[in-house]
Amino acid sequence: MTTTSHNVLPEELEDLVALFDVRGTDEPTPDAEREEALASPRFGTVFTDHMARVSWRQEDGWLDRRVEKYGPLQLDPATAVLHYAQEIFEGMKAYKHADGSVWTFRPESNAARFARSAHRLALPALTVDDFIGSIAALVRTDLAWVPDGEDSSLYLRPFMFASEPFLGVRPAAQVEYLCIASPVGPYFAGGVKPVSIWVSQDYHRAGPGGTGDAKCGGNYAASLLPQTEAQQNGCDQVCFLDATTNSYLEELGGMNIFVVMDDGTVHTPELTGSILEGVTRSSILRLVADHGREVVERKIPLEEVVAGLADGSVREIFACGTAAVVTPVGRLAGGTFDHTVADGEPGELTMAVRTELTDIQYGRAQDRHGWMRRLA
Ligand code: COI
């Protein structure tokens, strides 16, 4: 086994899954109830019958790989994560293809980011093999929960937390890794329609040397108050600026951002250490470049975008992430500005990128970059 990033070959997957002891529930959800839940899943509200789990002890390393009944965790009130937020997570999806096979998208990238996040939060790294093995073991156990509707998928949420009951401030000597699964439809209740964005002037998500490029719960906790402020200002989502100069676009509460100019070039904030390195973000950069378009990762001044919206040189803005896929932005507002993006409708490139990406993920288009991995 290795902790460095590598591709898991189809013939290796069986051995990785076999490491997980499946302790199936004797109270599975009745078929009719499951079918009802699958018919119109609202994001993150319904969970499958099982969860994958691996425990870590400082003296023994990772042990007890299993798939067990989904259910509440019993935690000592002194459990370290409840006090110091030593926690990380990932977001992935399992997609059902027309022939009934089930696939996931670039899991090695999520595994590598999970290991980077673990390092930043002083948590132990889970191997790529265990990460992918746990996901495949869970999906195979709860295969009946993978929805097959348009834009539906089984959302996978691997996470790791400090489980040691100890109030001293130091890396925990006991850690739990789990993966849970939730059948989902579109992330936004209204489906794929443009969202409005409020640019926060008062709050930042992350600063230099902080945890901005780690996928840790604390970053999302810090986004909740500004997100509420966005909603109070009539917007759906918040966008953060850099903490040093308060002038460059960084990212939304849970999504990366792209700006399309009238010369056809596509721009996204460069990775400065305080922005999450999105798997969807990097895939879009690749797909857009494949079409011969110029893609630019750079510092993007808010001022430039606001001026571009006013004079029409900014043609499209979109947000992206595993959960939200590619979501058009129809309005950008802040303390001193409020602009509709072009005519407020989903942009042409935005929707083309969304279609191309989802066609690959759902097996409707050739996987020319070798991004898909069969789970079942
Ligand atoms: C994802 O896109 O999967 C994420 O983890 C973001 C989360 C806010 C839903």
Tell me what the structure shows:
The relative contact order is 0.14. The chain folds into 2 domains: 191 residues, Aminotransferase class 4, branched-chain amino acid transferase, N-terminal domain (D-amino Acid Aminotransferase, Chain A, domain 1), CATH 3.30.470; 151 residues, D-amino Acid Aminotransferase, Chain A, domain 2 (Alpha-Beta Barrel). The chain has 9 helices and 18 strands. Strands 1, 2, 3, 4, 5, 6, 7, 8 and 18 form a 9-stranded mixed beta sheet that branches. The protein has 376 residues and is an alpha+beta fold. Strand 16 and strand 17 form a beta hairpin. 2-OXO-4-methylpentanoic acid binds next to loops. The site of 2-OXO-4-methylpentanoic acid has 5 residues, from loops.
Global mean pLDDT? 95
CATH architecture of the largest domain: 2-Layer Sandwich
Helical residues, percent: 25-40%
For the largest beta-sheet, the strand count, sense and barrel status come to: 9 strands, mixed
CATH homologous superfamily label of the largest domain:
Aminotransferase class 4, branched-chain amino acid transferase, N-terminal domain
Query: What CATH first level of the largest domain would be assigned?
Result: Alpha Beta
CA-to-CA gap between the ends?
22 Å
- Low-confidence spans: none
Hetero groups in this structure are:
2-OXO-4-methylpentanoic acid
- The rough form would be described as globular
Alpha-beta content class: alpha+beta
Listing every helix as H and every strand as E from the N terminus to the C terminus, the arrangement reads HEHEEHEEEHHEEEHEEEEHEHEEEHE
- And the CATH topology of the largest domain? D-amino Acid Aminotransferase, Chain A, domain 1
Provide the number of structural domains. Answer: 2
Continuous helix count: 9
Strand content: 25-35%
Q: How much is the radius of gyration in Å? A: 21 Å
- How many beta-strand runs? 18
InterPro entries: Aminotrans_IV, Aminotrans_IV_CS, Aminotransferase-like, B_amino_transII, BCAT-like_C, BCAT-like_N, BCAT_family
Keywords: Amino-acid biosynthesis, Aminotransferase, Branched-chain amino acid biosynthesis, Pyridoxal phosphate, Transferase
GO molecular function: branched-chain-amino-acid transaminase activity
Catalytic activity: L-valine + 2-oxoglutarate = 3-methyl-2-oxobutanoate + L-glutamate; L-leucine + 2-oxoglutarate = 4-methyl-2-oxopentanoate + L-glutamate; L-isoleucine + 2-oxoglutarate = (S)-3-methyl-2-oxopentanoate + L-glutamate
